[in-house]
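Re: [ENG-882] Designed sequences occasionally contain unexpected residues at chain ends

Forwarding the minimal case from QA. Structure tokens:
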């Protein structure tokens, strides 16, 4: 067994997006800037930053929670940061939110969703099934999904790693509850900017993204700006739940106890399969030479699984020595 151990890896919250609202027929009217309620949502559209409680008002939002979350305030809280989709903006102009994809899960999984509230309970087994399938579908046509499939199709939900304080976020949501209730049982894949800008999701794997949004560290787990000398860069996050369920990664056996407590260590064969995914991703996004390689590192034992039930691992770009020699800058250097 290999004893490759990473430091504390930031939880894969970027891939485990928050959700929205539940099902029924009519809903409180959300007026758009054109004084017409949103009829549907499509990919490659961009929007302002207004959130659902602001668009509805406090009283109407409470009614929305009663209707679509069964009056459960905890489930209702999952909708407080949902986009209102009231202000569509040309994507060439500064915007806060981009819908870079719209997807549907399998009919069999959709049939299990009886109420919209099912999409708000992030601790349920059904929610996690939806999460993993949506993450996979959102990323399928991107460099992350393409790398995963080119590397052999190991069912990991591979997605971006972004600095949580860098102002850029990738997430997903169900369609708003009123649209879901009308039969539009779809999900939006979103790219959000804290400050309105003209970056697009397709820019994430390029040099257009500010280096402050990248994630770099010194092993085992000291994070620092990528502009400074560092030993590794976190270039992608993986959720391994499906691979574990399929028996391709042994989730239980991976958690071990050493002199410093619990840690996660995979087998050499498991590392080799995950390394191939990471290397394939690195090759597709970077022109960096000089012995930098893509290597997989599981999250800490506390993330095996995380509070949200996700088994997470990261793709690091580093020089594969012990300890890794320091480097500077980001490997995302393609235009």
């Amino acid at each position: 067994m290999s004893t490759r151990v990473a430091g504390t890896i930031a939880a894969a919250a970027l891939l485990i997006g928050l959700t929205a609202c539940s099902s029924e027929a009519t809903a409180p009217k959300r007026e758009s800037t054109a004084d017409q309620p949103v009829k549907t949502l499509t990919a490659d559209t961009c929007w302002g930053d207004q959130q659902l409680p602001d668009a509805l008002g406090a009283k109407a939002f409470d009614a929305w929670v009663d209707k679509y979350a069964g009056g459960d305030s905890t489930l209702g809280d999952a909708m407080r940061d949902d986009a209102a989709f009231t202000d569509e903006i040309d994507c060439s102009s500064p915007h806060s939110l981009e819908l870079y994809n719209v997807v549907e899960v399998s009919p069999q999984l959709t049939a299990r969703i009886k109420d919209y509230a099912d999409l708000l309970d992030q601790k349920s087994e059904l929610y996690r099934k939806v999460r993993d399938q949506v993450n996979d579908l959102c990323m399928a046509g991107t460099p992350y999904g393409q790398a995963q499939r080119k590397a052999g199709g190991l069912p990991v939900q591979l997605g971006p790693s972004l600095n949580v304080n860098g102002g850029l976020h990738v997430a997903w949501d169900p369609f708003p509850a009123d649209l879901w209730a009308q039969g539009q049982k779809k999900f939006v894949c979103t790219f959000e900017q804290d400050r309105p800008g003209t970056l697009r999701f397709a820019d994430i794997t390029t040099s257009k993204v500010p280096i402050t949004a990248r994630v770099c560290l010194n092993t085992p787990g000291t994070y620092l700006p990528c502009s400074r000398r560092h030993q590794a860069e976190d270039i992608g996050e993986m959720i391994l739940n499906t691979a574990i369920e399929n028996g391709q990664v042994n989730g239980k056996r991976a958690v071990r106890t050493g002199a410093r407590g619990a840690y996660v260590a995979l087998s050499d064969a498991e590392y080799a399969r995950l390394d191939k995914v990471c290397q394939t991703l690195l090759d597709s996004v970077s022109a960096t030479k000089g012995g930098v390689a893509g290597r997989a590192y599981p999250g800490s034992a506390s993330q095996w699984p995380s509070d949200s039930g996700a088994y997470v691992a990261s793709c690091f770009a580093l020089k594969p020595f012990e300890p890794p020699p320091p480097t500077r800058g980001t490997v995302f250097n393609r235009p």
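QA comment: On inspection the terminal residues look reasonable. Confidence is low (pLDDT under 50) at residues 1-35. Proposing we downgrade this to a documentation issue.
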